[in-house]
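ok here's Carbon starvation protein A, seq below lol
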Amino acid sequence: MSENRRRRAAPGKPEDSDVLVQDPDLPPVALDAETADAQDREWTPLKIAIWAGIALLGGVSWYMLALVRGETVNAIWFVFAAVCTYFIAYRFYSKFIERKLLRPNDLRATPAEYKADGKDYAGTDRRVLYGHHFAAIAGAGPLVGPVLAAQMGYLPGTIWIIIGVVLAGAVQDYLVMFFSMRRGGRSLGQMAREELGRVGGTAALIATLAIMIIIVAILALVVVNALAESPWGVFSVGMTIPIALFMGVYLRFLRPGRVTEVSLIGFVLLLLAIIGGGMIADTALGDALTLDKTVIAWGIIIYGFIAAVLPVWLLLAPRDYLSTFMKVGTIVMLAVAIIIVRPEITVPAISEFASTDNGPVVAGPLFPFLFVTIACGALSGFHALIASGTTPKMIEKERQTRFIGYGGMLMESFVAIMALVAAISIDRGIYFAMNSSAAATGGTVEGAVAFVNSLGLAGVNLTPEMLTNMASNVGEESIVSRTGGAPTLAVGLAQIMQSFIGGSSMMAFWYHFAIMFEALFILTAVDAGTRVARFMLQDSIGNFIPKFRDTSWRTGAWICTAVMVGGWGSILIMGVTDPLGGINTLFPLFGIANQLLAAIALAICLAILAKKNVFKYIWIVVLPLAFASVVTITASMYKIFSTVPAVGYWAQHNAFKGALERGETSFGTAKTVAAMEAVVRNTFIQGTLSIVFVTLAIIVIVTAILASIRSYRSGGAPSAEDPAVPSRMFAPSGFLATPAEKKIQAQWDALPEDRKVVRKAHS
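and the structure came out like this:
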């Protein structure tokens, strides 16, 4: 490391500012540190009053949720508690992390500038990139996890979603994105190999690849469950693909830079796709689009491969940006509807199933299973893969990472809170009828009524008419055992929105609007996840065959994509054909694997920060790392060693295996020998993966702690960052440019065309 790099910078000043020389013929490429710091510290009476009001409203909301105990709680307090907490966290805590740990330097070029190839490395407008990143990270987790965890009551999930994201999830996303960007956009596994050495790095590489396969498979499984036997949903979601392709071509060739224009066009086309889906549902085309789960699964597998090998500007980025309009717009619309309609929530703060291990939706006690069931809305390892995959290769300026990384995760947390509110706003009897497996309900209205009423829930008296009427209202044949969380969220959203706009006659529209909204959420995570998985595999193979590290080498890209799609596709088919209901048995594995990956990501961040010798503030990472490690290792022990078949994979495996050896032809929820054999096979795979995942995670965490101790004793260590390259472009850091940034942008806009820097991007 050079002497310039070893020298400590002044507080708030990037360490390498003094070694980067700007082109004197260009306007400033960055807002100077003093001006930026002055903007942050400028306080007026109006600003003080606004922030005091936000803090007061947030405090009152938390008081109403956590301490006031009546028969009901109004849903508006969830909205206010979440939004106020997010505002305060973003303004103060994320800025504290930026100033004390990262010190971004906009004089320094990002990989999108110095590696620009127009395919994977493509400088992208920060607002478009925020949309891409948010769409990529916001998959099934923030929709499904809160819905499933609602069986434990509303308060534990609310606390974990909001407080967890502030102290853990958003911190992880922000740090991983920044560190990957500083390392040329390298994957999480490759960073681990560089930071932790051969043992820890190899364990991290294997863990991230294996866990990524599981995560993408579960994301795809949720889409399958949402679209199965739903021609309206299949048509609407299918139409988003040509719409996104059109938007990509429009921005690339027809009207470059016209982001707002193409967004409006895309939004109108999306609405037409939803309306068209309703029109064709009862026609011959609708019959052709009424597909079973296996057919939809194969369609998603083929789509995942194609989407991952196409240039990022053609499908991935415009589709993500398009879906972000739908996602953010829908969530904001739902929040406004909640404030106006003010639905009363009758679900208890902490339910009967919080302290038991036999919940009909999620088996296992509140600790640790709440924290692995609600993953993506609070803390998600999958995000670390996106934050070290596509996004860091597209960032224009380093200071944008706070807006995209920390801010993007806060928006996902808000999605999770809205999903939780939607789930708990419907009748509890209907909730359990929808989320209990077909093996428990028999898949019939009568079976669902009998099962739910046998649970002995206070205030619940489910009738057949309640289920048939709700199914009729949302335009579906049945809502019984529509597991996976997505249909429940759609019913809750439709119920709230029909009270806001349209009345009961609009419930079917709102339901299918929500289904498309959810499928869009998840499909964008599937295609982005597959692309990231390809990057990870290329990085891993590149340790032995260096040519694979060249992401522009199409042959290597196609080979690695095919391998990763084959991996998650096989798990998807296993879940689709699982007699126990794939989502019920696979989602716990998804949650645990996802949080183990988060612990791995935080451990890598710990090692990197230790090398930077910032031990005074390293608690920012140690706190979430310690919590995630305890939760996920404990949950893994439950799944491996529990003697309760509903909780432990091996207990379930041995129970069904014993039944087969006794010659029984049905057992528990499996009604045939083939179904029993499938349970034995699937639980063996799931149990084995649980052992592998937790072992690899422990190796990585221990290795990172040892590396951090060595760095502490030596006062830091050389950095693995790419050499600093002077930037030759400018871009604002937040969603809205500040007055100082607007002045610099005006200087760039005034340059003659032949002197402007040409960006190899879709935007």
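fwiw Strands lie at 73-74, 344-345. kinda neat tbh
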